[in-house]
Recover the amino acids of this structure.
């Protein structure tokens, strides 16, 4: 972080005021930190799970994407939230932090962060417990669902009912206490491009999430070149 602070001055409009703000800025521009990205928007989370295209898993097979949902964590609760002046290197538990508007990307992505303490015993950062529960598959035609089912799925996943008309939701080993754990939504790798096209129609794309010239050109490249080369 010392090197980032020293070298980034020429590229930023306003100096971050706290260590958490410096970590937020570095994280948002790709530097690995002890922060983990979250968003208030389930559509933004879904876009980030599919935007890079199909990657290979350790076994050489196409890797599925995923979205994690937190239910029972209230970032406004002092038991979970970090004070802006919190020392991120002295924490003994995971806390949440909503960064100020220090950059347009944080605003457009509805960004939050979880801050993870380092465990000397495990020689790693402390992580969440996990619960695998849902699989999303995009359909080209609307799925015939009742209003009650659409409402239930919307409450469970956070996705709007209009989008869920085109997403098949398969529930796998959903634990009775699923709201006490992060909920994992799996996105099959073969559905990435279809979902990205659907999200683009809803206004979720690189141009809107990365509101600068790089975001615009990346979006235009995908829209007019990459999509037609696959």
């Amino acid at each position: 972080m010392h090197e980032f602070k020293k070298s980034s001055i020429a590229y930023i409009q306003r100096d971050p005021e706290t260590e958490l703000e410096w970590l937020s800025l570095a994280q948002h521009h790709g530097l690995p930190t002890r922060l983990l990205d979250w968003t208030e928007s389930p559509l933004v989370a879904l876009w980030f799970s599919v935007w890079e295209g199909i990657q290979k898993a350790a076994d050489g097979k196409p890797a599925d994407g995923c979205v994690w949902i937190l239910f029972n964590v209230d970032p406004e609760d002092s038991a979970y939230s970090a004070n802006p002046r919190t020392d991120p290197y002295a924490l003994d538990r995971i806390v949440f932090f909503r960064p100020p508007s220090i950059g347009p990307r944080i605003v457009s992505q509805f960004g939050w962060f979880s801050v993870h303490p380092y465990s000397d015993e495990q020689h790693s950062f402390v992580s969440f417990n996990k619960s695998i529960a849902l699989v999303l598959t995009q359909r080209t035609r609307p799925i015939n669902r009742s209003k009650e089912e659409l409402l239930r799925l919307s409450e469970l996943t956070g996705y709007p009912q209009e989008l869920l008309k085109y997403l098949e939701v398969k529930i796998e080993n959903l634990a009775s206490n699923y709201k006490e754990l992060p909920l994992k939504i799996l996105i099959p790798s073969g559905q990435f491009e279809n979902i990205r096209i659907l999200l683009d129609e809803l206004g979720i794309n690189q141009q809107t999430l990365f509101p600068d010239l790089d975001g615009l050109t990346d979006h235009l490249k995908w829209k007019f070149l990459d999509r037609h080369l696959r």
